[in-house]
From TrEMBL:
GO molecular function, one term: purine-specific mismatch base pair DNA N-glycosylase activity
Protein name listed in UniProt: Adenine DNA glycosylase
Enzyme Commission numbers on file: 3.2.2.31
Keyword terms: 4Fe-4S, DNA damage, DNA repair, Glycosidase, Hydrolase, Iron, Iron-sulfur, Metal-binding
Organism: Flavobacterium faecale
Record text on cofactor binding: Binds 1 [4Fe-4S] cluster.
Pfam families associated with the record: HHH, HhH-GPD, NUDIX_4
Cofactor(s) required, per the database record: [4Fe-4S] cluster
Residue stretches making up the HhH-GPD domain: 35-186
NCBIfam families assigned: mutY
Physiological role: Adenine glycosylase active on G-A mispairs. MutY also corrects error-prone DNA synthesis past GO lesions which are due to the oxidatively damaged form of guanine: 7,8-dihydro-8-oxoguanine (8-oxo-dGTP).
SMART domains the UniProt entry points to: ENDO3c (SM00478)
Length: 344
């Protein structure tokens, strides 16, 4: 039995019951694919359901306020995805009359849509014969065919895409693409795959050559930067606090945060309190400064580790731009700050 027949047969017996697999609606498929980038299905599912409930159509999403979109996205991470999602929804709704492009090449022109996402929408919505190549596909093909090319290189993606294009059946492109991704997600997993109970146990070259743990090859290491954030939680006589919007480029763009003191290294109470009193809030009458917790919260992003401390700063009088707890909880925050707010 040839590769795609075995794979599709496995898929039909083992596939998960996922809502975006029950439709060819490009809006729903686009939403799911954007949400599942760098995200596990279990984590992405409630967000998908929330978005499709709050924004049933691409026109509804386009008409939403960006803060509403970011608030619903809160906790999913990689927030540029949400901002691009919103801008692309506006483009489709207002420039394309709510009609999605119906082919791979035109889908590729949408903001936030790369080769993988364009291929997924084109095949799942329009049954176009174009292969999807994501991390799961890299892993399955690298192991089955014993390919040692470094997947961190752009040339390798072209190599795998060409191979997948040879394997994809012209009459079942959507089914094949779903199947190979699902196989990588459930069976040919990164660590400790159950190779003995695999439909390809007799033909997988990596298994035969005892190279399963070595493939796929990825030599490029991600350089991680450590950053040290000190957040000031101001509180005035009316129990109001102060927040600011992150408008600069970089992490958490257009999300809210408390006033921030970023330092080059971990700093103690004396350093931070002096900075608060002498540099940051000279005009305010500060009565008390203390740490919420002596431990730092370490929040790990793909390329950065944020070492976060929270400082309570009590102000005599009122803050002219202060907001109360009710308003505070309506704003979109990075998940680490949202969790802090929920805990105080």
């Amino acid at each position: 039995m040839i590769f795609h027949n075995t794979l599709i047969s496995w898929y039909l017996q083992n596939k998960r019951d996922l809502p975006w697999r029950k439709t060819t609606n490009p809006y729903h498929i686009w939403l799911s694919e954007i949400m599942l980038q760098q995200t596990r299905v279990a984590q992405g599912m409630p967000y998908f359901l929330s978005f499709t409930t709050n924004f049933p159509t691409v026109f509804d999403l386009a008409n939403a306020d960006e803060e509403q979109v970011l608030k619903l996205w809160q906790g999913l991470g990689y927030y540029s995805r949400a901002r691009n999602l919103h801008k692309t929804a506006q483009y489709i709704a207002f420039e394309l009359d709510s009609q999605f492009p119906n082919n791979y090449n035109d889908l590729l022109k949408l903001k936030g849509v790369g080769e993988y996402t364009a291929a997924a929408i084109a095949s799942f919505s329009y049954n176009e014969v174009v292969p999807v190549v994501d991390g799961n596909v890299f892993r399955v093909l690298a192991r089955y065919f014993d390919i040692e090319s470094d997947i961190a290189h752009a040339a390798t993606k072209k190599e795998f895409t060409a191979l997948a294009a040879e394997l994809i059946p012209a009459d079942q492109p959507a089914l094949f693409n779903q199947a190979i991704m699902e196989f990588g997600a459930l069976q040919c997993v990164p660590k400790n795959p159950d190779c003995e109970n695999c439909v390809f146990s007799d033909s997988c070259l990596a298994l035969q050559r005892k190279k399963v743990t070595l493939l796929p090859v990825k030599l490029k290491k991600t350089k991680v930067t450590n950053r040290y954030f000190n957040y000031m939680i101001l509180e005035d006589a009316e129990n109001k606090t102060l927040v600011q919007k992150r408008t600069q480029k970089g992490i958490w763009h257009n999300l809210y945060e408390f006033p921030l003191l970023e330092t080059q290294k971990p700093e103690d109470f004396d350093f931070v309190s002096e900075a608060i009193e002498k540099e940051l809030y000279k005009s305010e009458n500060i009565t008390t400064i203390y740490e919420y917790d002596h431990k730092r919260v370490i929040h790990k992003l793909s390329h950065q580790h944020l070492h976060i401390k929270f400082w309570k700063v009590v102000i005599e009088g009122t803050l002219s731009e202060g907001i109360d707890q009710i308003q505070l909880k309506t704003l979109p925050f990075p998940i680490v700050l949202h969790n802090f707010i929920e805990g105080i």
